[in-house]
Each structure stands twice: as structure tokens, then as C-alpha cells.
Design brief:
The complex is a heterodimer of chains A (324) and B (273). Chain A has 324 residues and is of the alpha/beta class. Chain A has helices at residues 49-57, 100-103, 110-122, 126-139, 156-169, 186-203, 238-243, 248-255; strands at 3-15, 22-34, 38-43, 64-72, 75-79, 82-83, 93-96, 174-178, 206-211, 223-228, 231-237, 303-304, 312-313. Chain A has a domain at 3-36 and 47-86 and 226-322: 3-Layer(aba) Sandwich (Rossmann fold), CATH 3.40.50. In chain A, helix 3 crosses helix 4 and helix 4 crosses helix 5 (156-169). Chain B has 273 residues and is an alpha/beta fold. Chain B has helices at residues 54-61, 84-91, 111-121, 126-139, 156-168, 186-203, 214-220, 238-243, 248-260; strands at 3-17, 25-39, 43-47, 69-74, 77-78, 94-97, 174-178, 206-211, 223-228, 231-237. In chain B, the strands form 2 sheets. In chain B, strands 6-7-8-3-9-10 form a 6-stranded mixed beta sheet, sandwiched between helices. Classes of the chains: A alpha/beta (324), B alpha/beta (273). At the A-B interface, helix 6, helix 7 and helix 8 of A face helix 5, helix 6, helix 7 and helix 9 of B. The complex binds adenosine-5'-triphosphate (2 copies) and magnesium ion (2 copies).
């Protein structure tokens, strides 16, 4: 078993403009992603998904600060406050950004986009880049004719597929895809998700998919982690987490998904996502949790769930402190 | 039956200037021959992919975009041939929640001015507006304490509540919502869906919702109008359309939706283990 990504107690924060404080977006995360996994990171807005994903992709902004360790295939990429992504960024790990519209330059053709990325990562010349681009476009179901197009001449779905193709052409072993939250219909979503799933299965690309929609992970991912306020509150095989969710937050997420043809009331809990400034060790769901107890002012450990392989949950209610 | 809104063979589009050299103005047709009727008290959803013309339909209904041909009847009156004061009077009976809560709120205005705007526009006295603003904030579940804040610090869900408060403050009879949940997380989306339905039940409004999401539409509407490239490809009750879709587009939407959410809806779809 080869680990593609291993995070050990990693924390990532952003220094406030006036340098008065640090917003800790990711707080002490331990996580292992095996090579060939399709791993999904789920969580609400502001929970730290993009921050964690950009750490893996080696594209944290300069005002980010880090603690802990991050390995990409045995290479120590983040060692406390030191970063070393040379040879990893773009080559081993490729990133598909959250927003295709603003991630492509309006002044460059699709072919240019490929060229500039492949020149920098793989030292390709024009010709080699063009060949790689055509192969990758084929895989994502786009015609080679789009090479001459500018981004605005493509639909949102086509732009997204171009970004996936660029990630593919660089022969990266890990693709990090930050899913768009923008208004795309089910057809487009399904086709992008299926495409990513196919790349994972057929080309053994390790996939990290970021999304706020827990339900849509099931068609692509074999493992998932639920993130809340910078912490992982539940993780396991997709099938065991979705069939047998443990954390009250995970359960609520599932209760909120509209299901077609099934008339059930949606049951959101009141309250809003919280932003974490102080790095207090409490349960991040405490204030919204219908099952909170006094103990929840302390941070619960991530404990295994029953006999389920690799299924862990971070909740005092489920770790035997108090039953029921 | 009371028809409150009727579009009769509406074709509409935007003037565009194509190319730098030929400054020839042409009209880009976005909606083609759109006809539908909304009865009083109905909940209707307009569904379609990005760019299909959903927001454009709402612009036509809100008196903001005159159709190239066809008619818009509101309360039986031909909206675009009314004198402007009468047109305004009719439009005041419509409350509108625009797309994108992040861009639709003026970041420097206090919440009370944003929410009170529709009343201020018709010359209601300020102390009444403030009173009413705090009432609607309560209805949409926002704390009174934000009334003197700006929107800048608010989360997406709270912004959407502010926009809903503004839309209902003048007690509209028709509520028009453009993608009311698509910028939000699933849990906040569910909160907003429940809020809108409680407003519908309490105030007996007519509700027209635009969305790209069939699942959301199922919760916010009884009837669906499915749009593809500016044309209506299907129309019917939610049950009818979901159970027996007629157009290829609707069929593929339903299939895709079930694939995406497969795990929950029934165990008949294969999950990767
Ligand atoms: N470049 C940045 N500079 C400063 N703070 C940031 C930056 N990016 C994110 N943050 C903060 O870090 C926290 C986590 O943000 P992040 O973008 O990682 O969340 P997310 O889970 O990706 O959310 P979304 O679903 O909205 O994309 C938030 O509080 C956010 O305000
Ligand atoms: N103000 C405008 N001027 C010119 N063209 C426009 C304008 N607004 C929209 N369009 C064009 O009209 C078409 C339909 O746009 P519309 O905004 O109605 O789509 P929509 O279904 O609401 O899409 P979305 O789901 O992305 O909001 C698009 O091709 C768009 O580019
Ligand atoms: Mg993000
Ligand atoms: Mg729109």
C-alpha cells in the first residue's frame, strides 16, 4: 500500500492583514490517502476545504502559515513552517480550481493554456505540448478544434473539461479537484463527476474531490472525510459513512439533501457555519448540535466506529463517555 | 380560475454589438415563443441549465426587458402597454429575490435601508418603515441586532434572508425568486427552502422560482416549466413530470440527478465501495 498523501497534525492559517491574528482554516488534521483512492473532502462553506486542497497542490498563498507535516508520496512537502513543493507542484499534483471562468485567461487560446503549463512543468516545446493537449482533450470528450478557441467561446462545462484536460496532460499522479458551487445543472455535474471517476479508475490517478454536497460523492469516491471548522469530524469508506453516518453533523448533511421523487421534510439544524479565529480545543459542532452535552466544551478524539474498517468519528456521544 | 400572470408567445433578447469593426447592432434572441400561465396561489418553478434564459424570463416579468414580440399580462393587464405609473403600480405587487446574494447587496448600506427600500420607494414614513423592517427580519429569522449593520460581514445564508425580507416587506402578492439557494451549502439551502415554504403558507402568495436544480424545485413548486435554449420543452405538475417525463432533456436531467444523489434515493444505484 502506497500513500499518495499523508498529513500529520497539519494546521494551516492565514495571517490577518494587520497581522493582528491568524485565522486557522485547518486545525490539526491527520489524514492518509492511498494511491488510487478517489477521496472526497466534504464540508460547508468556510470549513477549510480549499485551504487543505491548496496545501496538497502546493499553491498556498504567501500569507498562509503552517504547522505539522505533509507528505506527498514520501516527500516531505510541508515540514512545520517550511514548504518544499519543487518538482511536486503541477508535476505530481495537479489542481483543478473551483472557478473555471476566472481560472482561464481571456487572452490566451486553449492551446496556449496547455503550452504554458506543460512548458513550465515538463519542459515541453510547442509541438509536444500540442500533441499532449490533443490526447488529453480526447479523454475528456472534447474536439481538438477547441485548441484554437478562447475561454469565453466555450460553455462553463467545456471550460471545466479543459481544466481537467490540462491536469491530465501533465501526467500528474494526484488530481485535486475543487468542485464548483456555481449554478450548473445535474447533467453537467454528473458528466464532470463521471469523468473524474473514469480517470481515477482507468488511469489510476489518485483523486481528491472537494465538495459541499455529501450525496454527490457516492458516484465517484471510495473514501471520504467530513470537515467542519477545519477539523475532520468523520471519515471512512463512502459506503459505510453514507449508509451508517455517525456524527450529528454528517447526519444533518444527509437529512438536508433533496431527493427526487421522495417527499421527506428537509431537516436542517438552525445556526450558521462558524469562523474559527481562536484555536480552542472544543467540539466545532457544539453550538448547533441537538445532542451536545457538557463534555463537548472539550475536543473529542477521532475514534473508530464499531468494527467498521477505517471508519472514524469525532464525537463524545459516540465514544462511550455517555451512551444514548 | 384566476390567472395572475400570463406570457403570450414572448420572444425576447438583448441588443448586442458584434465585432469591433462592424458596429452593427443586432439582437441576440434568448427567449423564443414562450407562453405560460400562472394561477393565483400557485407555486411554479422554471428549470433550465445555465444560459437557458431563466433570468431573462424574470426580467420580462419584472418589467425590465420589453419583449420583441408577444405579451406579458399581469392581473390581465398588458404590462408593456400600460402608462408608466400604472405599470409601476402593478409591479409593486411583485416581490423579487435576485440571483447571487453575494453580489446583490450594496455593501455600504445598513440592513434597514436595504430591507426598507421597497417601502421608501412608495413614500412610506420612515418610522413605519423601521418598524416594519424589524417585523420582517423576525419573519425571516434574522436577529434584530443586525438592523444597523452593513451586509459585508454576513454569511451567504444571512444575505439570502435579507433579500427575502426585502422582497416581502411590501406584502407582495407574487414572489419571484432567482436561484434562491444555489449559492448556499446544502444545510443552509434546506433552511431557506423551509423558510420560503412557511412564507408561502402564511402569506398565501403566488411563488415563481427559477432554479437549475430539480431537487430544489420539487420542494418549492407544484408545477414545473422546463426550459432548454430559450424554449419551453416541457410543462406539468411536479409528480407528472418526475414520473413520466416527455422531453429528452427532462429525462436526462432526472437520470443525472438520480445518479448524483444515488446513495440516498433508494438503494438501487450502485455505490463504489
Ligand atoms: N487567501 C485567504 N486569505 C485569508 N483567509 C482565507 C483565505 N482563503 C480562505 N480564508 C479563510 O479560511 C477559512 C476557510 O476557507 P476555505 O476557502 O478553505 O473554505 P472552503 O471550505 O473551501 O469554503 P467554500 O466551500 O466556500 O469554498 C475561511 O474562514 C476563509 O475566510
Ligand atoms: N444583459 C445582457 N446582455 C446581453 N446578453 C445577455 C444579458 N443577460 C443575459 N444575456 C445572455 O442571454 C442568455 C440567457 O441568459 P440568462 O441570464 O437568462 O440565463 P440563465 O438561465 O439565468 O443562466 P444562469 O443559470 O447562468 O443564471 C445567455 O446567453 C446570456 O449570455
Ligand atoms: Mg472552497
Ligand atoms: Mg440566471
Amino acid at each position: 500500500m502506497v500513500l499518495a498523501v499523508r498529513a500529520g497534525g497539519i494546521s494551516i492559517g492565514y495571517i490577518d492583514e494587520e497581522e493582528e491574528y491568524i485565522v486557522w482554516a485547518v486545525r490539526g488534521v491527520d489524514l492518509a490517502i492511498e494511491e488510487g483512492d478517489a477521496f472526497c473532502l466534504v464540508g460547508e462553506s468556510g470549513s477549510g476545504k480549499t485551504t487543505f486542497a491548496s496545501a496538497i497542490a502546493g499553491i498556498l498563498p504567501p500569507h498562509a502559515v503552517t504547522r505539522g507535516k505533509l507528505y506527498i508520496f514520501d516527500r516531505l512537502a510541508i515540514d512545520e513552517s517550511t514548504w518544499n513543493f519543487n518538482g511536486l507542484r503541477g508535476r505530481v499534483v495537479s489542481y483543478i480550481p473551483q472557478n473555471p471562468g476566472t481560472s482561464l485567461s481571456p487572452f490566451l487560446t486553449v492551446e496556449d493554456h496547455f503550452y504554458y503549463v506543460l512548458r513550465d512543468t515538463l519542459r515541453y516545446d510547442r509541438e509536444k505540448s500540442r500533441k499532449a493537449a490533443m490526447e488529453a482533450l480526447l479523454k475528456v470528450g472534447l474536439d481538438r478544434g477547441v485548441l484554437e478557441d478562447y475561454p469565453h467561446e466555450l460553455s462553463g462545462g467545456m471550460q471545466q473539461r479543459v481544466l481537467i484536460a490540462i491536469a491530465l496532460a501533465s501526467n500528474a499522479k494526484i488530481i485535486v479537484a475543487d468542485e464548483p458551487t456555481s449554478a450548473i445543472d445535474a447533467n453537467l455535474r454528473a458528466s464532470v463527476l463521471q469523468l473524474l471517476g473514469r480517470l481515477n479508475r482507468e488511469y489510476r490517478v489518485t483523486l481528491l474531490l472537494v465538495t459541499h454536497d455529501l450525496a454527490s460523492t457516492s458516484i465517484v469516491c471510495n473514501r471520504l472525510a467530513v470537515m467542519l471548522a477545519g477539523k475532520i469530524v468523520e471519515t471512512g469508506r463512502t459506503i459505510s459513512v453514507l449508509r451508517n453516518p455517525q456524527h450529528p453533523y454528517t447526519k444533518m448533511l444527509l437529512d438536508c439533501v433533496p431527493l427526487l421523487g421522495v417527499k421527506k421534510p428537509l431537516k436542517p439544524l438552525p445556526g450558521e457555519p462558524i469562523q474559527v479565529v481562536e484555536d480552542k480545543a472544543i467540539c466545532p459542532f457544539r453550538e448547533r448540535c441537538p445532542r451536545a452535552i457538557d463534555k463537548c466544551v472539550e475536543e473529542p478524539p477521532l475514534k473508530p466506529v464499531g468494527d467498521e474498517e477505517n471508519h472514524y468519528v469525532k464525537c463524545w456521544r459516540l465514544t462511550g463517555v455517555e451512551s444514548g | 380560475m384566476d390567472s395572475i400572470l400570463e406570457l403570450q408567445r414572448v420572444t425576447a433578447g438583448y441588443k448586442s454589438i458584434k465585432g469591433f469593426k462592424s458596429l452593427i447592432k443586432r439582437v441576440e434572441i434568448v427567449l423564443r415563443d414562450i407562453s405560460f400561465t400562472v394561477e393565483k396561489g400557485e407555486r411554479v418553478a422554471i428549470i433550465g441549465e445555465s444560459g437557458s434564459g431563466k433570468t431573462t424570463i424574470l426580467r420580462v416579468i419584472l418589467g425590465l426587458l420589453k419583449p420583441i414580440s408577444g405579451k406579458v399580462l399581469i392581473y390581465g393587464k398588458d404590462l408593456y402597454s400600460l402608462p408608466s405609473d400604472q405599470k409601476l403600480q402593478i409591479l409593486r405587487r411583485i416581490g423579487y429575490v435576485p440571483q447571487d446574494p453575494y453580489r446583490s447587496l450594496n455593501p455600504v448600506l445598513k440592513i434597514k435601508y436595504i430591507v426598507g427600500e421597497p417601502l421608501e420607494a412608495v413614500g412610506v414614513e420612515w418610522r413605519h418603515i423601521e418598524e416594519r423592517a424589524s417585523e420582517v427580519l423576525k419573519i425571516v429569522g434574522l436577529p434584530q441586532s443586525i438592523i444597523n449593520d452593513t451586509a459585508e460581514e454576513l454569511s451567504g445564508g444571512m444575505r439570502q434572508r435579507v433579500l427575502i425580507a426585502r422582497a416581502i416587506i411590501a406584502e407582495p402578492e407574487i414572489l419571484v425568486l432567482d436561484e434562491p439557494t444555489s449559492a448556499l451549502d446544502v444545510s443552509i439551502q434546506a433552511q431557506i427552502i423551509n423558510l420560503l415554504n412557511s412564507i408561502y403558507n402564511t402569506f398565501k402568495v403566488t411563488m415563481i422560482t427559477v432554479t437549475h436544480d430539480l431537487g430544489v424545485a420539487q420542494y418549492l413548486a407544484d408545477r414545473l416549466i422546463i426550459l432548454k435554449s430559450g424554449k419551453i420543452v416541457e410543462e406539468g405538475s411536479v409528480d407528472e413530470v418526475l414520473r413520466n417525463p416527455k422531453s429528452e432533456y427532462t429525462k436526462s436531467l432526472i437520470t443525472s440527478y438520480l445518479q448524483i444523489t444515488g446513495i440516498n434515493s433508494l438503494n438501487n444505484i450502485k455505490i463504489r465501495g
